């Protein structure tokens, strides 16, 4: 009798382990396709909605973004952010101030380009299920940090449009209690963009005060 119980338990755990492997591999396959598709683009432009919730914050920002390799530009109601992959210029409209930082010194911030590749660094992944929204079939994938101690994230739930091989939206929970809801709209690839799109041009921002933190 004990032997039968032991064998039943063993089979049960083997099934669970096999299922976990299957869901992990399925998630990896889906995200690999999206990474491949995204890396083939010269650039991407899209509108986005960013919701921010915490004990002290409950707000929604609408914005536009342009991404090309390690370069990005985005704007919301209160700011414009430009990066050439090395430095980041953050122009705060109300204060007419521009903060200049090394990109490695603002790792706590989230930028729209990060959503496109967030799973590629320091994450385990698992496939959850499929959901339907506005006649689109979206696949949900859960991300967990590998290096929990040094990650700013708690968990990430991605929704991806497998038919278009694009990220649709993400729910991001940070370890400091903030929940970010990010949704991408009207994504277009390989658009014509300005020559100096990813370069800060002070002449376009009269009387701005530059604060260089590099």
| pLDDT < 50 runs, ≥5 residues | 10-20
CATH class: Mainly Beta
Q: Helix amount, in percent?
A: 10-25%
Task: Please give the number of β-strands.
Answer: 12
Q: What order do the SSEs take from the amino end to the carboxyl end, as H and E?
A: HEEEEEEHEEEEEE
Largest sheet: 12 strands, mixed
Can you walk through the features of this model?
This protein has helices at 2-39, 112-115; strands at 44-53, 58-68, 71-75, 79-83, 87-92, 97-102, 123-133, 136-145, 153-161, 166-174, 179-189, 209-212. With 214 residues, the protein is α+β, with helices and mostly antiparallel strands. It has a single domain (2-77, 107-191), classed as Lipoprotein localisation LolA/LolB/LppX (outer membrane lipoprotein receptor (LolB), chain A), CATH 2.50.20.10. Strands 7-8-9-10-11-1-2-3-4-5-6-12 form a 12-stranded mixed beta sheet. Strand 9 and strand 10 form a beta hairpin. The N and C termini lie far apart (70 Å). Residues 10-20 have low confidence and may be disordered.
Key attributes of the depicted protein:
2 helices; single chain; outer membrane lipoprotein receptor (LolB), chain A; alpha+beta
Write a short abstract of this structure.
The protein is of the alpha+beta class. It has a single domain, classed as Lipoprotein localisation LolA/LolB/LppX (outer membrane lipoprotein receptor (LolB), chain A), CATH 2.50.20. The chain is 20% helix and 45% strand.
Draw up the topology in text.
Layout: H1 2-39, E1 44-53, E2 58-68, E3 71-75, E4 79-83, E5 87-92, E6 97-102, H2 112-115, E7 123-133, E8 136-145, E9 153-161, E10 166-174, E11 179-189, E12 209-212
């Amino acid at each position: 009798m004990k032997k039968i119980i032991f064998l039943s338990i063993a089979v049960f755990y083997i099934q669970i382990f096999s299922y976990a492997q299957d869901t992990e591999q399925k998630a990896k396959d889906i995200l690999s396709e999206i990474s491949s598709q995204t890396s083939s683009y010269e650039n991407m432009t899209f509108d986005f909605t960013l919701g921010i919730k915490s004990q002290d914050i409950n707000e929604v920002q609408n914005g536009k973004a342009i991404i090309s390799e390690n370069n990005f530009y985005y704007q919301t109601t209160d700011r414009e952010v430009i990066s050439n992959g090395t430095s980041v210029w953050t122009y705060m409209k109300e204060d007419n101030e521009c903060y200049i930082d090394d990109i490695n010194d603002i790792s706590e911030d989230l930028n729209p380009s990060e959503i496109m590749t967030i799973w590629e660094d320091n994450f385990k992944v698992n496939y959850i299920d499929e959901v339907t929204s506005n006649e689109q079939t979206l696949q949900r994938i859960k991300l967990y940090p590998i290096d929990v101690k040094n990650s700013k994230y708690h968990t990430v739930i991605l929704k991806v449009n497998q038919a278009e091989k694009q990220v649709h939206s993400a729910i991001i929970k940070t370890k400091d209690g903030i929940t970010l809801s990010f949704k991408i709209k009207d994504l277009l690839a390989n658009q014509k963009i300005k020559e100096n799109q990813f370069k800060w041009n002070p002449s376009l921002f009269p009387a701005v005060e530059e604060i260089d933190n590099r």
